[in-house]
């Protein structure tokens, strides 16, 4: 971890100059951001996480927002997608209902998410990561694992220095900041990247792993959420140190396969490789309504529009999906998910929508909903998608019409043509 003895040599994260032992500030530029660690040049598994990604991009694009609390989210009935650190200090958190966020931070500026812009920036950063190593495993639009083993000869520097140079390049060329975690395994690299946000760079070495983990809460372990943490607390387990004192067989008997994960990660054992083939497992879109909806025709219009968004993302991403998933959230915040597996993968809005409608028909019984979403999982090769339907001739005609609509939208924009389901929806 940072905080290693100043007797160690180090380098400055701002100007990258090597530093003599004993200095608390960079001898060249005066920065206090010195990186020292006894295992600094021996570790190669990194986790890079963009700091308040959506909010940082909006502040970059509008300097007037620089010193203001900023929330990215959707309207008074929506939830917080992310918030800048100024808003977080005042209690705003991701996934918090918007009305609660504005109660905590009433002077915040609220901006609706611009996913196309965020995806574009995310792809820029991903391409820059892949210049460092081919072993990049994305976790989301704004974070990824990197395996830097074997790259020292290429970059003529150990991974820690290469990653610090990369973070500085992101600030200079992209205009946002990232935090870096470096360790010997994925679990601890991800934990490290959270330690000093924003603009952090933390290292967790092998020698300190057990002591570092001992006092941390069990929720530090991947997969331990609030519900499971409550189960562990009822059993007298609050910290990772307690897990370190338990036998593997005891944990297996109590918690099944999760018990083995608890045993291993509590000891800093994580042999998962950085897998660059890991990609999104689903593609979806959802919307939170300004007012609760219960009428089937109103829900149908939103479902069609969302199906078209999902289909567009599948086309642009070169993907198809075989399982359609409907998501609904009731007025009292209860979540319902329904799914259906198709005979063949699809990337057509028509098939996604019609399957979603079948699922929705069973739920639209007068219940008031605050959110609806549709998506596909079990992603598959798009060349296998949507073979001609010899039974339903109408489906083939609709697929041909959809292809024609897509060509018009690609040329003239998404709003250039609409179906009857969505026509005038935003004006109702």
From TrEMBL:
The record marks 54 as: Substrate discrimination. Transmembrane segments: none annotated. SUPFAM superfamilies: DNA/RNA polymerases, Lesion bypass DNA polymerase (Y-family), little finger domain. This is DNA polymerase IV. Binds 2 magnesium ions per subunit. Residues 45-225 form the UmuC domain. Keywords: Cytoplasm, DNA damage, DNA repair, DNA replication, DNA-binding, DNA-directed DNA polymerase, Magnesium, Metal-binding, Mutator protein, Nucleotidyltransferase, Transferase. It is an enzyme of class 2 (transferase). It is found in: Cytoplasm. Belongs to the DNA polymerase type-Y family. Its EC number is 2.7.7.7. Its main location: cytoplasm.
